[in-house]
Write a structure and sequence with these properties.
The protein has 2 domains: 181 residues, Rossmann fold (3-Layer(aba) Sandwich), CATH 3.40.50; 70 residues, DNA polymerase, domain 1 (Orthogonal Bundle), CATH 1.10.150. The chain is built from 12 helices and 6 strands. β5 and β6 form a beta hairpin. By secondary structure, it is an alpha/beta fold. α3 crosses α5 and α8 crosses α11.
Length: 271
C-alpha cells in the first residue's frame, strides 16, 4: 500500500497569486513567476505527509459534463468588468501557473489534465478506482470531503487543518459523513452558482434525514408550515433541482465520464 499526494493544481496556485490578480487592489503586488516555489511546495508537503508519490490533478476549460446539465454552472465566477490592468495580471498569473505545471512535469511529477474535465473528477476517479492506496488531498475545496475515508484525507493549506474521518464530527459538526453529499445537494453551492433550498442548513437537513430517510424519496408534502425554510424546501423539492444537484455535486455521478486509461497508467507506474 502506497501513499500519494494528490494536488489540486489551480487551487494550490492561488497560494502564489498576487492580490491584484483577482481583487484589483490599488498598489497591491501583482503576479510573479512561481514555478520553482510551486515545485518545492509540492515536495515539502509530500515529505511532511510521508507520501511516496505526487500526482498533480488539473482543470482544462471547465466541466463539459456539468455545463451540459446546467449552463449557468460557475457563471458567477466570470468577472466581465475587469480593468485592463486586472486582465493583464490575470493572464500573467495563468501563464505562470501553466509554466509551474510544465516544470513539475519535467521534473517527473505526473500531471493529469483532460479536456472538459475538472480536477475534482480526476481526484474522484483515482480514489474510487484505487481503494487500497492512501491519499492526501492537497486542496482548500471542501467538495472533496465526500471522498474522505480511512485511507483518504484532505489538507487545507490556508488553515493548515487536516480533514479526516477520525475528526469528521469536529470539522463537520452538524452532518454525518454518510449524509454530507445529500446536505450539499440540498443547500446548493453558491461558489459554483448552484442554487439550493435557502435557509436550510446542515443541522436541519441531518434532522430531516433522521426522520424521513433518503432525501431522494422526500416529497414537498412532508414539510407543511409557514416557516421560511419549510417554504423554501417545498419549492426546492417541487422543481427537480435536487436530482440535478446530485448530478452536479456528487463526484460519483461523473466518475464514469473520466478518461480512466491514462489515469490507470499513471497509478500503475507507481507500483
Amino acid at each position: 500500500m502506497s501513499r500519494t499526494l494528490l494536488v489540486d493544481s489551480l487551487n494550490l496556485s492561488f497560494r502564489f497569486a498576487g492580490k491584484m490578480v483577482f481583487k484589483g487592489l490599488k498598489g497591491a503586488k501583482g503576479a510573479a513567476p512561481f514555478s520553482l516555489d510551486y515545485l518545492s511546495t509540492l515536495r515539502a508537503f509530500a515529505r511532511s505527509f510521508k507520501c511516496e508519490d505526487i500526482v498533480i490533478c488539473s482543470d482544462l476549460r471547465g466541466s463539459k459534463y456539468r455545463k451540459s446539465i446546467y449552463p449557468e454552472y460557475k457563471a458567477n465566477r466570470i468577472k466581465k468588468d475587469k480593468t485592463e490592468e486586472e486582465q493583464e495580471e490575470f493572464f500573467k498569473f495563468m501563464s505562470y501557473w501553466k509554466d509551474a505545471e510544465i516544470n513539475a512535469e519535467l521534473q517527473g511529477i505526473p500531471l493529469l489534465k483532460f479536456e472538459g474535465i475538472e480536477a475534482d473528477d480526476v481526484f474522484a476517479n483515482i480514489v474510487i478506482n484505487h481503494p487500497n492506496d492512501e491519499y492526501v488531498l492537497l486542496s482548500t475545496d471542501s467538495d472533496l470531503d465526500q471522498l474522505i475515508s480511512e485511507k483518504v484525507w484532505r489538507f487545507a493549506y490556508t488553515t493548515k487543518k487536516e480533514f479526516r474521518l477520525s475528526n469528521w464530527d469536529e470539522m463537520h459538526p452538524y452532518v454525518s459523513r454518510e449524509n454530507f453529499v445529500a446536505a450539499k445537494c440540498i443547500k446548493g453551492d453558491t461558489s459554483d452558482n448552484i442554487p439550493g433550498a435557502k435557509g436550510v442548513g446542515d443541522k436541519r437537513i441531518q434532522a430531516f434525514i433522521n426522520m424521513y430517510g433518503d432525501p431522494m424519496l422526500w416529497d414537498a408534502e412532508m414539510f407543511p408550515g409557514v416557516a421560511n425554510y419549510k417554504t423554501a424546501l417545498r419549492e426546492f423539492l417541487g422543481t427537480g433541482m435536487l436530482e440535478r444537484n446530485y448530478s452536479l455535486i456528487d463526484l460519483t455521478h461523473c466518475n464514469k465520464d473520466i478518461i480512466t486509461r491514462e489515469i490507470q497508467e499513471v497509478i500503475n507506474a507507481k507500483h
